[in-house]
TrEMBL record:
Family annotation (InterPro entries): CECR6, CECR6/TMEM121
N-terminal signal peptide: none
Domain of life of the native organism: Eukaryota
Species in which this protein is naturally found: Austrofundulus limnaeus
Keyword Cell membrane assigned: no
The gene coding this protein: tmem121b
Taxonomic path: Eukaryota, Metazoa, Chordata, Craniata, Vertebrata
Family: Belongs to the TMEM121 family.
Stated name of the protein: Cat eye syndrome critical region protein 6
């Protein structure tokens, strides 16, 4: 980078840092807001020990604070020259470090609260005695989408980088899955899902969709894209779309309900996910095969004078030569 480019990028980096701070603040606001509303429902309408729910929220907030600190330290190390290997996707590695752990902590803490509310008489009491009723509960549960959006934007540095585009592509797919599952979850709340098996299938799939970001956030952190991660992504899509497709077929064929537009989304995501898996795995195999048959020859470019005592390359000497 030349001096002129550095001067031009300085204000942009400073502006991006302020935007990251804004999204980090929003993350904590959404975490506290969603946790407080769910705690309110659980504390007011049950005799469960209230300290346990507040302690759970404190653990989640502390975990996210630790994640942001570790992520910032990783970013500073990369800025000082401790670069990691670049992946086949060209992602800026380390940018999403520890993000999957933050989302995993959130899912583990949030899921039991929502399940307790939906599977007890709390749901009926919320509908009768709380302002906004079920609408307020639905909005509170759906805060997971904006929270995930703020998480991504709080750690992305380069707005035009491939990691940001990849993350937002995965985010949009996850949002569609969450809305898909929530459309059926609304039918469960309205008592329009007659079968107990279908009801628990819908509940399970919704929380699987909520946990899916753990997989693709770890994929963005991984040092190298491998076929097993592609299979993991396809497997999570299969766990979400296939059960929902079966539920919708039961609704249409057995219970004579109208066809949902999400039924076509389930079919489309299953087919495109399979095609993407085959295409990308084939491309990775070709790259690995080419790397084995045509190994890179670069050692002759480094002289003995450019080597450190322990055998590491003196990159400063190489760059100056």
């Amino acid at each position: 980078m030349t001096a002129g480019e550095f001067v031009q990028s300085g204000p942009l980096l400073e502006l991006r840092s302020e935007q990251n701070l804004f999204y980090k603040t929003l993350c904590f606001v959404l975490l506290v807001l969603q946790g407080a509303v769910l705690d309110f429902y659980l504390i007011v309408f049950t005799d469960l020990y209230w300290c346990s729910w507040i302690a759970t929220d404190l653990v989640v907030v502390s975990g996210w604070a630790g994640f942001f600190l570790k992520n910032s330290r990783s970013r500073r190390e990369r800025a000082c020259g401790f670069h990691q290997k670049s992946s086949m996707l060209g992602c800026s590695l380390g940018e999403f470090s520890y993000s999957y752990l933050a989302w995993l902590i959130y899912v583990i803490a949030c899921t039991p609260k929502v399940v307790l509310i939906l599977e007890t008489n709390i749901l009926d009491l919320v509908a009768l005695k709380v302002p906004l009723g079920l609408t307020g509960l639905k909005v509170t549960v759906l805060l997971s989408g904006p929270l995930l959006f703020c998480l991504i934007n709080s750690i992305v540095v380069d707005l035009n980088g491939p990691s940001r585009h990849r993350a937002h592509s995965c985010f949009l797919s996850t949002c569609l899955d969450l809305l898909d599952g929530f459309s059926l979850l609304e039918l469960v709340l309205a008592g329009q899902v007659q079968s107990v098996y279908l009801k628990y299938t819908v509940l399970s799939v919704y929380f699987v969709a909520l946990a899916v970001p753990v997989v693709w956030l770890y994929e963005l952190t991984a040092a190298e894209l491998r076929c097993r991660w592609l299979w993991a992504r396809f497997g999570t899509g299969l766990l979400v779309n296939w059960p929902l497709l079966v539920v919708r077929f039961f609704q249409v064929l057995v219970y004579k309900q109208p066809v949902s537009v999400f039924l076509f989304k389930n079919v489309f995501f299953l087919l495109t996910g399979l095609l993407d898996l085959l295409e990308r795995c084939s491309a990775l195999r070709r790259l690995h095969r080419r790397a084995r048959t045509e190994p890179a020859q670069f050692s002759h470019c480094v002289s003995e004078n450019d080597m450190c005592p322990h055998g590491y390359v003196n990159t400063l000497a190489v760059s100056q030569s």
